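Lecture 7 notes: from sequence to structure.
We start with the chain below.
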Amino acid sequence: MTHRLPPSADISRSARVNRTGRGALSNPEGRFETRAAERIDDGWGSLDEALPPLATTVMPEMARSIISRNQSPDIPFEQSINPYRGCEHGCLYCYARPSHAYLNLSPGLDFETKLFFKPNAAAQLEAELSRPDYRCRPITLGANTDPYQPIEKRLHVTRDILEVLRCFHHPVTIITKSALIERDVELLAEMAREGLAKTLFSVTTLDNRLKRTLEPRTASPAARLAALAAMSGAGIPAGVMVAPIIPGVNDSEIEAILERAAAAGAISANYTLLRLPYELKALFEEWLWTHMPLRADHVLNLIRDIRGGRLNESGFGKRMRGGGRYAELIAQRFRLACRRHGLDRRSPALDSTQFRVPTAQMDLLD
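Predicted structure tokens for the same chain:
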């Protein structure tokens, strides 16, 4: 069954090029593009034809710097590294999608099919950590796109970064929704024994049907929880992120996700509410009216309730948790569920005092 999108979705039929196994339903131009393309029916019903699967392209992007510094008071870390631009996981709600517009690419299907990796990431990181004025603070991997997305299996950019951090005795936090992290369990366990590593697993839903449309190329919920259990079993502190909580879509699962995560060995929990910056508003509305047409108006009204009457709120202090009665109810439910399952404690702090620059010259890319 097809449903007509409301004008507020702001994506024309000509831009909708839904492909099997992808999160976004269209590929609209980014906000900085000066030209627009439009698909036109040739009279033979070409716009209604089923399209073949959309291939993923991966291109190198040499990094001039690798450590990003954070200025936001809403984010609990000062430094991060993004091994990749774009993410094949295809999570429809990803707040990083609008960043593809800076590359003159679409935050829609381009974000999940036109990917960039940083082949010199490890060498650049080694150089930056070796600077005399470098001050050690924990680094987060996975703040923007997933460091263990599918292409990591063959490119090993994240693995190379971790090897450098281990040699420098540098603390790291990893955020992922991929089971591929289990590949590095021995390395991370070694670092964790020195207080240098911890992991956070993002679990959005336990419903495989919802997962298939909302975050199509991620690991299944069961696989993520199994990976969390593997980390915990190896002595690597593991927490759960219920992120994002989407009012009217997955908020009914908060308690169940926390219960399952605690049973798998999680020792801490956190959450964020759905954010819809820039082009993401229209992409989300399009997904919502396509997959949940009878619920769409209700969901959008709930989002406006937590966002001061809008679909997005970028101000510090509210962009992660929202405001209003519904946001307060979610916060209360989350707090009570964490207390019930022993997740209402802080994750252990990482140790920055062991950092040192190796005396021998390293060649980590061989």
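Points to note: The first strand starts at residue 57 and ends at 60. The mean pLDDT is 91.
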